[in-house]
Amino acid sequence: MKKVILGILAMSAIGFTSCKKCSECHYEALDSSGAEVEVELGEHCGDDLNTLESSGYQLSDGTFLEVHCHAH
Amino acid sequence: MKSRIYKLLFLVLIFLDGGGYYSQVLKGVVLNSDTKIGVPDAYIYSFDLEIGNSTNEKGNFEILQFPKYKSKILISAYGYEDQSMFISSDSIITILMEPKHAMLDEFVVATPTGKLQGENITYVTTVKLNEPASINNNTIGEVLTNVPGVYVASVGRGISKPVIRGLSGNRVVTYLDGLRIENQQWGGDHGVGVTALGIDRLEIIKGPSSLLYGSDAIGGVLYYVESQYAKKNTWKSFIETTFESSSLSNTTNLGTQFTKGNSKFNFFYGSSINADYALPSGLRILDSRFLSQAFKTSYGYNKNRWKINVRYNFSKSIIGIPGHSHKDSIYTELFYTDKVNWSSTLPIQNITNNFINVENKFYFDKSYLTIQIGHTANDLKEFEEKVTIPGIDMLLNSSTLNLRYAYKFSPILELVNGVQGMYQRNSNGKNAEEILIPNAYTTDLGIYSILFAGNNKFKFQSGLRTDYRMISVDSPNFQKDFTGINYAIGGGYFAKNSIIRLNISSGYRAPHTSEMIANGVHHGSFQYVIGDLELRTENASQIDFVYEYANKHLSLIFNPFFNQIQNFIYLQKQDSVITSYPVYNYVQNERVAMHGFDFGVHYHPHFLHRLHLESSYSYLKALNSDGDFIDQIPPAKWLTNVKVEFNEKDGFYIKNIVMRSNFIFPQNDVAINELPSKSYNLLSFGFNGVIKTKHNIININAGVKNLFNSNYVDHLSNLKYLNLAAPGINFYIGAKFNINNK
């Protein structure tokens, strides 16, 4: 009986443990012809992902662009 | 000071142990009424004390720690008609069990009133959830769609809101073993906060029920009753798993229950993973996937005149919100996908619930006192455009207190007095992009008194309640007070084959904070919502009549009702659009009148003992004071079940085969700007089998839902405006492995 209870507690502990959140991110920009394109920024995780979403992506000229990430 | 505390504790313990000099043992024998031979393995159970025991091979039994208080016990044994009786520990009883000819309805206890369903003046519909359903139900929403007069407003398969006689949201109150569940139920996309894991049964009260359940219960009540504990000094465990083809879903639950001495324990864990569901065409609805997990545990203890239950629930759900896009042009095909996907994508709801409930009950010779303290914490996050920054982030903490004192003046006269209180705090997360409803707190206090009178033939109940609600909002800073006085009066005539019940009850609902000060986009329901600070209290009055007839082969029920709600609050669609979302204003109509009926029949022909035919028809119509139809009123529905049962035997056997038809009529009685809906028929087929060994039982089930792959959009679906259909043909297979150890 103790094994069954320990089994349920272990299943619950494993089940409720979430893994680190990672996402593919991109920002939108205009190409030389003026068309809108998505510029991929690759996969970002954890605090890095949070900073990117909250502050945006900084271009070399210092401007910040809004970043879109997709959960997966 | 310390010694005084010790003295006080000592006195409390003496009080709890009071009556220790009484026998505190219930003894008796259960006999076959025809042969007068003892019935082995009959189970004698007191539902209010939550203790019981089985008879030995001679039919004798004894239940320890049974107080002198007169408790209602149920006696059940395989092959015999169920029985019930009032009994106390100072007597030795002989119970005669009548061999069963055919069973149409089992004895079911209506928990809130502590009376048997058949003796209750308010009609209570009961759905058993602890045993395999005839046709598998993957969610509570599916369970509710098969109850007469009850419907579901859904957003895909992951989000289901109960609709009782056309009312939902804040107008339907949910209780989990006496604990009021608060989970932002005002939102069109905020589903039921309780899963079926570890639940014995669901009791549904249709219509205003504020007398016992307080403010907001003007549409009805869902009352979940947790699983009973294992029999004395035994343990049992189970593991069950089900697979469904439409969402390629898997639901797995496991649990163990045991008692040792006076202590009783339950542990359960369950998880469910669901991909985007498949349409009749084979394409899938994007982001209709969901994942949920739950853990719950209960501890119970009985000692002489005292009973305590401590229950804890933890659940976590990640639910996709289908039918949602930020694109300028929105069309149905945008939400189709041909890929199978389980992993979460935006937008999603992330919901975490913590419920704790501590119930103490003290029994005296003619009375009992219940003290119940509970807390619920509902953390709702909606991620809309960013995966780490929630669009909405609300934490709803609700602390509740229930006190109830019931005194029996005589076997035919009982007075129940009670106090209910709640302190609720809604807090928005600092990172949330939007604040749909502000930080606010709500205080509730209600006092009630109910008188029960009657004998076996005539019963009467009457009660009065007064409520006070105070809502205080941080920003914009304001405070509002609401009061309500409610009543219920009813009577019943209980003959051998017929029962007549007439009940008049009232309910009240103070406007919710969201209805008063909302001003923003609600992505889940795809609306821009604007509230009104001047909204007044809703007041409902219902007349409910029930006629039941039953003999050994036929049972009938006819339940007409009329419910009138004054100052009805509703969302009215405007012609304007803000940030590409249609604008909805909370407005109030002077009066909404709702009337309808449920009719049900259960036929079990004498010449075909294995056949059960069940059918019900539910009808509802609602008009406001201007003579217009109101929004989101469900169409009529006709439910039919044909079940063939087979005899129990050792080894493998088929328990039953079931064919179910859900015919939903068209709804053309619609509000201004509301879409009508077409009729549809869902045919399902399933079988339940059992593999029985010396100690263990394995239940297996398999079947198909929506057998003819019907393409339909339910009238109450939030995806109706996008013409996104419900799941197509859906095969399922499942097994439950039960381990019993005496």
Describe this structure in words.
The complex is a heterodimer of chains A (72) and B (742). By secondary structure, chain A is of the alpha+beta class. Helix content of chain A is 35%, strand content 39%. In chain A, strand 1 and strand 2 (36-45) form a beta hairpin. In chain A, the strands form 2 sheets. Chain A has a 3-stranded antiparallel β-sheet with strand order 2-1-5. Chain A has a two-stranded antiparallel ribbon with strand order 3-4. Chain A has helices at residues 2-16, 46-55; strands at residues 22-30, 36-45, 57-58, 64-65, 67-71. Chain A is rod-shaped and about 70 Å long. The two termini of chain A are 39 Å apart. The longest helix of chain B is centred in the N-terminal third of the chain and has 15 residues, at 2-16. Helices cover 4% and strands 56% of the residues of chain B. In chain B, the strands form 7 sheets. Chain B has a 22-stranded antiparallel beta barrel. In chain B, strands 10-15-16-13-14 form a 5-stranded mixed β-sheet, with no helix packed on it. By secondary structure, chain B is mainly beta. Chain B has 4 helices and 42 strands. In chain B, strand 24 (348-363) and strand 25 (367-383) form a beta hairpin. Mean pLDDT of chain B is 88; it is low at 10-23 and 102-110. At the A-B interface, helix 1, helix 2 and strand 5 of A face strand 18 and strand 19 of B.
Question: How would you concisely characterize the structure shown here?
Answer:
The complex is a heterodimer of chains A (72) and B (742). Chain A has 72 residues and is α+β, with helices and mostly antiparallel strands. Chain A has two helices and five strands.
